[in-house]
Amino acid sequence: MRLRASWPLHALGLGVVRCASWLVPASQRVAWRMEWSAELWHVREVCTPQRGVSWSGEREVAAFLFGAFEDARCLRRVEGAANRGWVMGSAGRCVFTLMVVLAAAYGAALLLPGAFVALHPPEYRDAGRLMLIQSSLAASDTEPTITAEQYNVWRSRSRRMFDGFAFYQVMKQPLQDADGKVVSASVAVASPELFPLLGGDAVSSDVAHGDVLPVLLSSSLWRRRFGGDPAIVGREISLGATRARVAGVVPEGFWRLPGKVDAWVQSPDQNLSQQSVGYVVARVNAAGRYPHWSNSWEMTAPLPNGNSGEFLCVSLADRTRGPFGLFLFAVVLAFLALPATTSLPLGEYRGAPQRLAWGTRLKRWNFLAWKLGLLFPIVYFASLDLAHVTTRIDPIGSEYIQLLAAFSLCLFGLRWVLRDQRERCPVCLRKLTNPARVGHPSRNFLAWNGTELICTGGHGLLHVPELETSWFGTQRWLYLDPSWEILFAEQGVASGSYF
After folding, report:
1. Is the pTM of the predicted complex or chain greater than 0.85?
2. Same domain, residue pair 278 and 405
3. CA Rg, the chain, in Å?
4. Which of 411, 412, 420 is nearest to 371 (CA)?
5. Which domain holds residue 238?
6. How many angstroms separate the CA atoms of 358 and 499, rounded?
7. Share of the chain residues as helix, strand and coil, in percent rounded to the nearest 5
8. How far apart are CA 303 and CA 310, in angstroms?
9. Does residue 303 share a domain with residue 170?
């Protein structure tokens, strides 16, 4: 065979093809380069003369070589799209996304003051023995029903049942903030025994026995009206018509009793108006015969007029509990409601044409366990975030919001977990794609009618009936043997889980 006069140009063209081949994915590079080298030889045979050099023919060859770069870039785009599809629909991507959502929900719980306090609830001293006493006729535990006169009657009598009492009344009073602006604040006028009974030693003795009344500020009021000044203790402020000295700041979330309070004034019992209506907290005598009573019970106690009345005692243990018990209750409700909202079976998965490895069989259930294991903490922290998104919501309202949010998120989360599990290949756990309509409604009595989805790894087909029948009541998975691998783009994926 004689070499053409244009053989240097042909060698240059082969070099261009080799350069373009570096844009091709590595798995297809060798075959692509061989194919384009052969086509380059054919184009040169057709477009250039046997002898001499034809510049018009060389322009045709050059245009052909430019097409090699376009083809290489196209293959890379297709490969990239396939890889992105693999990653986006993979089980690992799903678990990673759930982890990101969990981290975001937990981070929000740490940043929101109310949610942070709910995760680390304050503990009252002997909360199981502390009782909130109110009239048995009260419509709710947030309604003040005990007068200061009634409180003094109980304090003055023998203490066989209770060894400590405290009284407080919530009222609106004008308060002067750090800027001299007068604002309306919810102030609790409390007996000196209240915080020692609860276990909060926030009032130092020198301030409490001064000429002015000691006042405790809530953490939110301290930050909002006094700029979070760390030197606030000992400062005198105007509270109503009196002067008060700041004795301390009550930690966020410590107050779990009825009434939203911005400040607490420690007032001697003799200064309380006998007709003041408020709340009474008592501590059950541990040395008596009443330590094992339930969290709520009724008692008959003397009234100031000498008669007897019925009163309800409610333990503060329920008010100081953490949010986890409420979350568990919402999860139980969600599991009970789940069968009424979605189908529980995951479908029929008949035997594979070749035996699957044990790891392949188990990873499907392992993936389901991962999703459930991440779903529950996501629901827990997200419900706390929604319940405490603002500090203006009272504790009882926050509990209702948390219960509703946890139930809704858990129910819809469980529905998503089951639906996502049904839409994945049992071998590679990728999302099934390319839905195709199969059959007509008239075929329900002969075969089936519904949607067919395919695993792009070549592992099988999923048949989902449009109308459930007694012979085709749920979706069915059809395994494909490795001989189908040649029809799928990702080589080596289809039979990788078999042996």
Report:
1. no
2. no
3. 38
4. 420
5. 130-315
6. 11
7. 45, 20, 35
8. 10
9. yes
